[in-house]
């Protein structure tokens, strides 16, 4: 049962990256870093990582997404792009010009929000307003003892961290929560390029659907079959309070192994599928029809040369989903 592309409501205009990636009733395509195949272990080589991000930008992908993976946790099986996301954001901000720079997602309970707020505003400024910040409560219990943090109350700390980051965008804020207090006499520069950093909640993050739909600037979720995803998108948008005056975007990740035969039928892989271009296009069109606004493709399991795959996607897929 499709979730109709919600309504005539627009999305809020926030910063350059958010406005570019998320448009009502349209789907855009991004990529998850690292842009390489690594199936024999959890740690990528990061070979030619900058070259490939620049190629993705030139090819017309709307965003590249980093992940916050502090430790190589064996049970998780993926070290992400290895580099600290904020350090890497600063590097990519100076090496690219147009592509949106996203994090999907920053684990708020593992960092002090003052550091997140300052680093995020810095990356947003250095990139000319291209930062999109996914946020999450974290799903790897092993990491919490290493940082002397409590896993059980991460949902409460997520909310307080969110509030703290939002308030740091104000001029000389005065407020208090578990992370500290400010008296309205000191300020935190730099400020975001817009009135706030766009923050998208990942999954539920230990919050009610109503909290996420009210406070965040969008929703990051995972692949489901089309009918289930349609219901999930509809439920998310029905939770957005009318008084916001705007709808809010939905994005999802998708692992793909794109085969050379365009007519190859789909076969399931971890959080995605192996298929030819024909099925991939049809699947993404179905997501667009049910109201998904962005898909971040993960090429970790892709068997064909990564550069060739990026160019193939750019030539045959991106014209269907222009940023």
- Order of strands in the sheet with most strands: 1-2-3-4-7-8-9-12
Task: Give the biggest sheet.
Answer: 8 strands, parallel, barrel
Q: Quick one: how many beta strands?
A: 12
Secondary structure: helix percent? 25-40%
Overall average residue pLDDT = 95
Given the structure, what is the number of helices? Answer: 10
CATH class assignment? Alpha Beta
Tell me the layout of helices and strands.
Layout lengths: L15 H6 L6 E5 L16 H11 L3 E4 L18 H11 L4 E8 L5 H14 L4 E6 L6 H4 L7 H15 L5 E4 L2 E4 L15 E4 L6 H7 L3 E3 L4 H13 L11 E9 L8 E3 L2 E4 L1 H14 L3 E5 L7 H11 L7
Describe this structure as you would to a colleague:
With 323 residues, the protein is of the alpha/beta class. The chain has one domain (16-320): Luciferase-like domain (TIM Barrel, Alpha-Beta Barrel). Helix content is 33%, strand content 18%. It is built from ten helices and twelve strands. The chain has helices spanning 16-21, 49-59, 85-95, 113-126, 143-146, 154-168, 209-215, 226-238, 277-290, 306-316, and strands spanning 28-32, 63-66, 100-107, 131-136, 174-177, 180-183, 199-202, 219-221, 250-258, 267-269, 272-275, 294-298. Strands 1-2-3-4-7-8-9-12 form an eight-stranded parallel barrel, surrounded by four helices. Strands 5-6 form a two-stranded antiparallel ribbon. Strand 7, helix 7 and strand 8 (219-221) form a beta-alpha-beta unit. Helix 8 packs parallel to helix 9 (277-290). The chain is globular. The two termini are 27 Å apart. Mean pLDDT is 95; it is low at 1-6.
């Amino acid at each position: 049962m499709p979730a109709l592309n919600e309504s005539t409501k627009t999305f809020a205009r926030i910063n350059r990256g958010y406005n570019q990636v998320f448009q009502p009733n349209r789907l855009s395509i991004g990529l998850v870093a690292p842009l390489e195949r690594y199936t024999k272990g959890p740690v990528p080589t990061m070979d030619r990582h900058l070259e490939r991000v620049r190629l993705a930008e030139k090819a017309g992908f709307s965003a590249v997404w980093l992940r916050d993976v502090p430790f190589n946790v064996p049970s998780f099986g993926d070290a992400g792009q290895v580099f600290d996301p904020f350090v890497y954001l600063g590097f990519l901000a100076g090496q690219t010009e147009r592509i949106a720079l996203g994090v999907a997602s920053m684990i708020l309970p593992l960092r002090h929000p003052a550091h997140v707020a300052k680093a995020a505003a810095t990356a947003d400024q250095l990139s000319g307003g291209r930062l999109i910040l996914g946020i999450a409560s974290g799903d790897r219990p092993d990491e919490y003892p290493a940082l002397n943090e409590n896993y059980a109350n991460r949902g409460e700390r997520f909310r307080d961290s969110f509030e703290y980051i939002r308030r740091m965008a104000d001029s000389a804020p005065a407020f208090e929560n578990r992370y500290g207090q400010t008296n309205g006499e000191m300020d935190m520069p730099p400020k975001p390029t817009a009135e706030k950093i766009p923050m998208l909640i990942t999954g539920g993050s230990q919050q009610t659907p109503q909290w996420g739909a009210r406070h965040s600037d969008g929703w990051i979720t995972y692949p489901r079959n089309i009918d289930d995803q349609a219901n999930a998108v509809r439920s998310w948008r029905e939770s957005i309070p009318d008084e916001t005056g705007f709808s809010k975007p939905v994005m999802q990740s998708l692992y793909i192994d794109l085969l050379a035969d365009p007519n190859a039928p789909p076969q399931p892989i971890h959080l995605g599928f192996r298929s030819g271009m024909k099925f991939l296009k049809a699947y993404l069109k179905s997501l667009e029809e049910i109201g998904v606004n962005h898909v971040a493709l993960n090429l970790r399991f892709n068997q064909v040369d990564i550069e060739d795959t990026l160019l193939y996607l750019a030539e045959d897929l991106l014209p269907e989903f222009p940023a």
